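Regression check, adenosine-5'-triphosphate case 313:
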Amino acid sequence: MNREILIQAEHLHRYYGPICAVRDVSFELAKGDVLGFLGPNGAGKSTTMQMLTGTLAPSAGTIRVQGIDLLDHPKRAKRELGYLPEQPPLYRELTVDEYLTYCARLRRVAGREVRAAVERSRSRCGLNEVRRRLIANLSKGYQQRVGIAQAILHNPAVVILDEPTVGLDPIQIREIRGLIRELGESHGIILSTHILPEVQGTCNRVQIIHRGRLVFADSMQGLESHLQAQACIVAFRQPPAIEALQQFAGVEEVTELGDGRFRLRYTGDNPAEALTERAVNAGWGLLELIPERRTLEQIFVELTSRDAAEEAA
Ligand SMILES: Nc1ncnc2c1ncn2[C@@H]1O[C@H](COP(=O)(O)OP(=O)(O)OP(=O)(O)O)[C@@H](O)[C@H]1O
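Current build output:
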């Protein structure tokens, strides 16, 4: 399958005086990608986002947007970029339509196309009903939609969203995530966040940055296989002796959890099939067999603490 590459970042570095905030970061974004950019506070997310949007020059490295070098041709490259900063740049005293029209002019949308561009992004972001309302009087969720609408006004290839659901209630969060997934079908999206479920619910690729370096980059399926712990929980009505469970091929450790429940840690092939067969034949009364999953939090902590330990060494 031919992936249309929208962003190519190569060997990005950024120093603030002696502090290296971003170190040798390289990645690609293709059309249809919703790339989650995760990292703890101070990891270098905002610095990277600012470099990608052309608001901060890298100390070294290159960024190409649809093949156009962002440093050599910033105006042309920025036409293909839409950006929602952490604090949406809204004018609260304007109505939604007035504000979007103003943004379209700033984005140099041709005069005769302004109306259509405003209508398109307003509709896509579900803002038709509030088009004549003052932004100041909208809920935070609707204000965030207005922020996203300004980012897609000029129909850019890439949309960069910095912490887009911070401060929203659960229903608004669901709506904004749905909107992001929808936008991902026709744009490439980079979503910077420190909210792990946001990445699981919205993105098809994930990158984790820690102390300025990428410590993880994979597809969501790749991440899923990391999440799959080599362990399962089983429960029986007539539990066997623990030794009987230790005898299954690959089982390394069995922990009794009480009430006929056990945790089996294994290597290699999942013993579930053999276990089920034996449980049926021996009349153990299998009640539960649940593969255990690690949380994204656990992986995140593992990766970031391993990185810190390596650095200390
Ligand atoms: N203008 C600046 N001058 C000096 N140091 C800076 C500047 N901006 C950021 N830094 C430092 O660079 C590092 C990366 O900061 P950055 O804001 O990119 O991280 P972040 O991942 O976006 O964090 P957060 O989630 O807290 O916003 C931090 O150590 C920060 O203190």
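Comparison notes: Residues 16, 19, 21, 39, 41-47, 194 surround adenosine-5'-triphosphate (CB under 6 Å). The chain is about 35% helix and 30% strand. No diff flagged against the previous build.
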